[in-house]
Amino acid sequence: MIPQSPLVSAKGVVKRFGSLAALDGVSLDIAPGEFFGLLGPNGAGKSTFMSLIAGLRPLDGGTLTVDGAGVAAGSAKARRSLGLVPQHIALYEDLSAERNLRIFGELYGLRGSGLGRRIDHVLDAVQLADRRKDLVKEFSGGMQRRLNLAAALLHEPRLLLCDEPTVGVDPQSRNAIFDFLQELNRGGMTIIYSTHYMEEATRLCSRIGIIDRGKILALGTIDSLIEQLPFEEEIRFPSSPATAAILGDLAAIGELAIVDGVHRFRPRQGYPMSAFYTLTEAHALPPRLFTSQRPTLESVFLQLTGRVLRE
Ligand SMILES: Nc1ncnc2c1ncn2[C@@H]1O[C@H](COP(=O)(O)OP(=O)(O)OP(=O)(O)O)[C@@H](O)[C@H]1O
Ligand SMILES: [Mg+2]
């Protein structure tokens, strides 16, 4: 089988703002057709990476190509093959939804009845067809987000960059957006999706890059990332004077973290769970205090960074 050449290829990408390295040697390849998740906390470098792919800023080091060609800031051709859903809503507030889409479509070179059909299609897709004549400033935050997404899709880009597109969107509309993005991806669109939400990444993305402080900490499918963890189960129990008695013993046989007043114990590989329950019984701690679960993407993040991802 001939390996598919990547649609996006980053090698040692550096971006600085003054003395701060917002991206500090990012290397990753994204194949055509992937639904790639970029997961990281505030300030990790997600938006910076998106803006470089979109050619909105020059790099300070490394190489970055889209479809084999270097991304040059300002390249109109490259920009037409991709759509960017920016984190901060970029719409004209005093114009209607439809007028906004017309302006964005013309920017991408669409005209006439072709543009009209695309406007109808994207408005339907984000469930705003009945609000098309209304001014954007009269829209709720979630509706503005949906229109922001629609604007990036008018020209049917090959590559869609979604920078936290569902912040502030209600669960029902969020589901509709997910369905729509998955349908676009099945149709062949490559999607790069940044998020703080583990559930979104788990539900949508075929592969994930975990980014923190400008560096990629891990890269792979969610299953492969979970399999690489040095433990197979995570036990949660409340922090209380009673459970404090076992913390010392647990620290010797695995890793302990505390998140929102709940302890998370990750026993080292091969540690028998029966021994754990012998320990809790010895301290007369009732079993109902302890819940055991399979590690999740959040466990991976906690393991890599010592923190949980805040929303
Ligand atoms: N235009 C800019 N000028 C100066 N510093 C910047 C600029 N843009 C980003 N930074 C800095 O670069 C780092 C990465 O920011 P970036 O916006 O890429 O993070 P992010 O992962 O998108 O975070 P968030 O989840 O909060 O959106 C941060 O420390 C930020 O302060
Ligand atoms: Mg951002």
Structure notes:
The protein has 311 residues and is of the alpha/beta class. It folds into two domains: 8-226, 3-Layer(aba) Sandwich (Rossmann fold); 230-294, Alpha-Beta Plaits (2-Layer Sandwich). Helices cover 36% and strands 26% of the residues. The chain contains eleven helices and 14 strands. The strands form three sheets. It has a six-stranded mixed sheet with strand order 6-7-8-3-9-10, sandwiched between helices. It has a four-stranded antiparallel sheet with strand order 2-1-4-5, with helices on one face. The radius of gyration is 23 Å and the shape is elongated.
Structure at a glance:
The protein is α/β, with parallel strands linked by helices and 311 residues long. The chain has 2 domains: 8-226, P-loop containing nucleotide triphosphate hydrolases (Rossmann fold, 3-Layer(aba) Sandwich); 230-294, Alpha-Beta Plaits (2-Layer Sandwich). 36% of the residues lie in helices and 26% in strands.
Helix tally equals: 11
Can you give the helix content as a percent range?
A: 25-40%
Radius of gyration: 23 Å
Give the second-level CATH assignment, the architecture of the largest domain: 3-Layer(aba) Sandwich
Number of domains: 2
Major sheet attributes: 6 strands, mixed
CATH superfamily of the largest domain: P-loop containing nucleotide triphosphate hydrolases
Topology as H/E string?
Answer: EEEHEEHEHHHEHEHEEHEHEEHEH
Instruction: Give the CA-based shape.
Output: elongated
Number of strands: 14
Query: Low-confidence parts lasting 5 or more residues at pLDDT below 50?
Result: none
Briefly note the structural class of the backbone. alpha/beta
Bound molecules: adenosine-5'-triphosphate, magnesium ion
Oligomer: single chain
